[in-house]
Q: What sequence folds into this?
DNA sequence: CATGAATGAGAGTTCATTCAT
DNA sequence: CATGAATGAACTCTCATTCAT
């Protein structure tokens, strides 16, 4: 009934465990591939019990999904910054900087990029969810951009967002 | 009792079965990945029993290996033709044509290339075997080239062969 | 390509394995309940490997389902014989003999009856399938009975079948 | 430091929690069976943490046991009232009223009765404990009855008690 | 007293592999 | 040569139970 003040402590500890699992799992997935990585191996390397993975992510696919969402997010944040830092730059410059951010990300994460792409494009049902996630974020950004005058208002956010998401992925693939 | 003329027929049929398995397996490996493809699925699609796969390739890795050897071979044949068709071309031209062949192969087989690389470059113990196979072929070719005067005789075939094999793979990766 | 004459032998052996599993599983389910019975236990008692259960029945529920279908079938066969042996008996006599068969079955299988009912009525998704199976069989029988003049033609087979199936179960429950 | 008047409040709250757990658990056990009911589900429906169940009942079997004891008790109380209200009724009348009470209970709790029987009669080690509990209570009652002249003194309480307990259960089974 | 994140033994299930036919 | 029922080690996932807070 009366939650003691240990709640923030517990939540922090839970988040730590979660992040530890995400990091360890990403390393292993990149190193040996998703299917060849055993959940028991992830747990051991993260210093927790197998059950903890299922407590946090539901199943192995859920863990993959969480990792991809995280990565998609970190790519997205970089691209978004470009548009926020240069609200009045001409479109052609924005496009160039957008591409540069993605290429820079790919170069900084040479090991991770192919893994993300492998799953983001086909292969696994989780892929579609990730693209949808990217699209949603970009769409929201476009709407805000339109509201604040950065984007033209005669473009349809859903279409533009899907186009940009795919462009980002294709860029990563062929960088 | 047993008609001798049956043997060639049998052997032809055996080769047919083998090729059918190689083709079906490649399709499935490219589509869903090696680990996610079931041997039973391959057998079913090829219209044979599971046991037949083991008869021809020993185990699942043997099947993967045979596929990769086949692919490496087909890439190698193309490159070899360049050197054979232009026995006296200047080295810089040969190098350019070499690269062009590889890129052309990658473009003709966009689906297959990433799969080959995934396994040739790491991930799976079969990869090392494949590179060794490529190296052996190239080395042999270099020796013959030296014998017939196409190659300079002051280069060490083993080293040169390994260099070329890796160059081919790197080219495919970044085409 | 040329299936040897060992096919009937194999099929017979497969059927034997299947029946052995059905029998052993029924015993264990009756003794300790479905959920408390381990698949490994069934396999061991039947003298096969765990995998064999999954080869034959897909999963544990599939095994339960197959058992219930078998039992429903054996009850149904008895009841059907009543109607076939006395094609021209007055309806009230048929109804009495119908009930007697069910009660006799319940008495002969005192251990099994409660188990069947537990699952045929609610609790488990497999239950609905079993009732549907009973209904289908009875419905077919009614149609044939109508065609050959045993049943009146002004009753709707689907409704009558569902009514009879539930009557049979209720009889078993309260015998 | 710690107000004494807090204790009764705490204890009342504790009893509330306990009863809430007993009620919620009975509902779920009846609905889905003991083994298919998760402790986490019980806790959630009762609005407490999982740990609380273990605080009150030791383990899941302890919870089942407490429920069965409760139910056995409520059946027993009814039967006892018969003998208390009619201290000098002839034995044949007492027996009839005894049976009527049990049947009435079964009718009032149609959902619960099969569940109680399932566990009281076999299946689970807890069953034996419950029967022992019933026997003890009945035995004690018989002794008191003998002391106050209601029962004849030439019957052996332990045997009579066990006979009555089983009669009650058999009645419930075939009501 | 109560909590709920963490645990890990153990259950169901998969699937590469075998071998009698 | 080919078959496919059978295998069982190994995997994913579950959930009753614990204990630091």
A:
């Amino acid at each position: 009934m009366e939650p003691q003040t240990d709640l923030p402590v517990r939540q922090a500890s839970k988040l730590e465990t979660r992040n530890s699992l995400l990091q360890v799992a990403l390393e292993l997935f990149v190193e040996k591939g998703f299917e060849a990585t055993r959940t028991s191996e992830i747990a051991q390397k993260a210093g927790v019990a197998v059950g903890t993975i299922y407590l946090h992510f539901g199943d192995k696919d859920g863990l993959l999904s969480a990792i991809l969402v995280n990565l998609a997010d970190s790519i997205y944040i970089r691209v978004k910054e470009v548009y926020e830092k240069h609200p009045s730059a001409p479109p052609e410059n924005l496009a160039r900087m957008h591409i540069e951010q993605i290429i820079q990300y790919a170069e900084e994460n040479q090991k991770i990029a192919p893994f993300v792409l492998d799953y983001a494009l086909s292969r696994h049902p989780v892929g579609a969810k990730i693209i949808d996630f990217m699209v949603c974020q970009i769409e929201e950004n476009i709407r805000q951009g339109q509201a604040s005058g950065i984007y033209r208002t005669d473009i349809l956010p859903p279409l533009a967002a899907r186009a940009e998401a795919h462009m980002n992925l294709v860029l990563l693939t062929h960088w």
Notes: Helices of chain B lie at 6-32, 39-46, 50-57, 60-85, 91-108, 112-121, 125-147, 157-174.
